[in-house]
Amino acid sequence: MNGYTKNLILLVFVVGFGIPQPLNAETSTSAIDLMSLSIEELMEIEIRPTATLTQTSTRNRPAAVTVISRQEIENSGARSLDELLDIYVPNFQMFLHSWGYQHIGIRGNIFDRDDKYLLLVNGQIMNERMHYGALSERDLPMLSDLQRIEVVRGAGSALYGPGALVMLINLITETAETFEGTEVINRVGAIDEFYSSEFKYGRKFDDEGRLFSYVGIAKQPGMHQSDAPYVSSAPYSLSGTDYSGTRPRSFSQLAKHNASFRDRTKAKVHLHYTKDDLNLWARYTRGGQHYSAFLKSLGWSGYLDQGMAYDQLSLFLGNKYHLSDTLNIDYSFSYSLFDFVRHRARDIDSHRQDKYHTRVISNWTPNPDHSFAFGGEWLHKEFGLASLGYPDKEPQSQVFGYNDRMPRWSTDNYAIMGEHQWTLADQWTLFTSGRIDWHTFTRPMVSPKMALIYRPTDPDTLKLILQRAVRASTAEEMKKAHDSTGKKSDYESMESLELRWEREHSRNLWFAASAFYSDHSVVAWSGSSDSTEPLGDLKLWGLELELTHKTDKSAVTFSHGYTSLIDFKLENPGTQSMISAKPYGGDGLASWNDHVTKITGNYQVDEKLSVNGSLNTYWGMSGGKDFAAYRHSVESNSFVSGFDDPFEPSVFLNLGLRYQFSKNVDFSVHAHNVLGWFDRDLNKVNKIASTSRHEVYGYRLISPSISFTLRTRF
Q1: Is the distance from CB of 158 to CB of 469 less than 8 angstroms?
Q2: What is the pLDDT of residues 110-164, one digit of tens each?
Q3: What per-residue confidence (pLDDT) applies to 245?
């Protein structure tokens, strides 16, 4: 039996597959000073990025991917993951929500829950599956454990499974391969008040073992209501005083903006050990926030301060087995605990969910023109467990009813997946990927993907990407539906097409353009039934432009995103949806700015001093106006006629300065939302559109604020 035949037989009989891991010790970016490389050199580095299962070059990755480096994280002065992503990711936006965290979305896709995308840490999914989606990590002001972030703009369930409909966010942590030594980071925020301390330590041992440890804690009082007033779109009477006019009253009794849930200390702990191909890590996060619910401001008694909180613990063990020079197998086991608490009106949702996960993936490269990945995974989840935060309280949720105990149940998900990377010719590469998932409460879910990469010239790369993504409904809703009907739930799907052009114009200049189309069979909140259900078919298209210019002393990035509604047809014409007024005679997206323009810059003045900044502009919200007019015709008390403030442009300018006192000590100061000192109305964060009779739209006026950072290395 020759070596080729032996490898083929081994590949055929390999069972299982897993989600790709970040760069290992052999391919770690720590071996390369990335900041010293040109754009052209960076694009040719061989990696296994978030967007593929097989190893490829950055230039060939079959997706639109935004990579935020460790240096960019520090330059931004961001005080949360949400803020960081909003600064750097093209066509990405944030909106407030009255009944939950602020929501994030991309390419026009933003909904009542954050369950249309996946949030990963080192390739492991962190989403809460019972109700909300991506909840953890996003609010924490401690970001120094992150080595880089990779954001895939577009679907990803062909690789990562149900839930990756519109975006993937992969947080890749430091290891002792990327960080060695000791560092202490202390940060203080004024006006938008927070206090954080972080400690990180990395060490390489004589036996080739590597240990990285990180601890971060924060207190976050947030921004007082007077500095971040919430403006409602409905003409309420407060404290017995009638109010009328085109600008409704700001509420004065709301929770502080960015205030931590019940004044809890936020925390993050990460331990990571690697040796050869062994990869062990443990991670714990604790966070939560209050948000912009307005019930107490109406004088309604007995209502809780609205908010959500979480505790999440993840344990991971992975290893790699080399069968030959061309064939290896990655296998891993993980456990995750997610504890969830939500204060809602007069009720408390609290419950815990546990997840057990195993996966195996084989990678085979028989020759330079062909690379294969194939395998499978098993995921077991336990629901309805008592919350650690309320151990004496029976687990409950809105779906099961507050007078009934949430049942205890479990689900299993089995999946197989694979990818073939084929170099058709010197200029052509074809990626063919696919995944099939079998879930306890759904029919089999199929996610295929194809990407054709063409490099007509040395500077230019063209990418044609076609894919289908899927998402199962939330665990509580599938369980309740199965108990009521005995049937399996329908799943959500999206078909998308993207044409992308990238050009490495010179060693210092890179730019790209994408045109995308998506057809989405939406499952989301219905205002008619007060439940999540299939709503209808949503079709979008859009354009994205990107530019990066880099010299020895400076770096500038520019992006512009445009998204437009093609059509939105309801499955049931009588359904009240928050997505668009299109079914009711209007047009456009109700909760999306058609245009978003982002600029970031950094300049090294001398060896010690550097300056940086970012400017984000959101504009064009005609779909919001149409939706407000429609809701006003249905509920005349829900919106002030002629009130256009929510639909005016929002502009956020951040400026930063960093001074290197010595090799081991540097100090940074950042001014956030600077334009608010000149025109406060520019710093406006809209609330997601609503079908509520109390309020269709609202927004926060965010005050400018300042933060200070001191880094000390030993």
Answers
A1: yes
A2: 998 899 999 999 999 999 999 889 999 999 999 999 999 999 999 999 999 999 9
A3: 54
**How many angstroms separate the most distant Cα atoms in the chain?**
90
Determine the residue type at 455. Answer: R
Q: How many domains does the chain have?
A: 1
**Residue whose C-alpha is closest to residue 20's, from 470, 354, 381, 417:** 417
Give Cα 54 to chain centroid, integer Å.
Answer: 23
Identify the CA nearest to 412 among candidates 435, 386, 451, 383.
Answer: 383
- The two tokens of residue 179 are 């960080």
State pLDDT tens for residues 337-348.
999 998 876 778
CA distance linking residue 187 with residue 648, whole number of Å: 33
Q: How far apart are CA 134 and CA 169, in angstroms?
A: 10
Query: What does the alpha-carbon distance between residue 559 and residue 548 come to, in Å, rounded to a whole number?
Result: 9
Per-residue confidence band for 574, with pLDDT thresholds at 50, 70 and 90? confident
Per-residue pLDDT, 528: 67
pLDDT of residue 47: 52
Distance from C-alpha of 210 to C-alpha of 205, rounded to nearest angstrom: 6
3-state DSSP assignment of residue 331: strand
Which residue did the predictor score with more confidence, 304 or 584? 584
How far is it, in rounded angstroms, from Cα 694 to Cα 352? 32
Beta strands per DSSP E along 276-306: 278-290
Q: Per residue in 308-332, pLDDT tens?
A: 999 999 999 999 999 999 999 999 9
Give the residue ranges of DSSP H helices in 520-634. Answer: 622-634
pLDDT at 28: 36
Query: Rounded to whole angstroms, how far apart are CA atoms 200 and 70?
Result: 14
Residue 282 · residue 223 · CB < 8 Å: no
What pLDDT shows up at residue 198?
98
Mean pLDDT computed over every residue of the chain: 88
In DSSP terms, 652 is beta-bridged to 616
Beta bridge partner(s), residue 595: 562, 619
Considering the domain boundaries, does residue 705 fall inside one? yes
Structural tokens at position 271: 């331990």
Domain span holding position 117: 14-236+254-323+336-713
Is 567 inside any structural domain? yes
Tell me the CATH number at 231. 2.40.170.20
Residue 635 burial class via C-beta count within 10 angstroms: exposed 0-12, middle 13-18, buried 19 and up: middle
Q: Is the residue at 328 inside a domain?
A: no
Does residue 246 lie in a domain region? no
Q: Judge contact between 33 and 69, C-beta under 8 A.
A: no
Q: Tell me what the mean pLDDT of segment 72-93 comes to.
A: 97
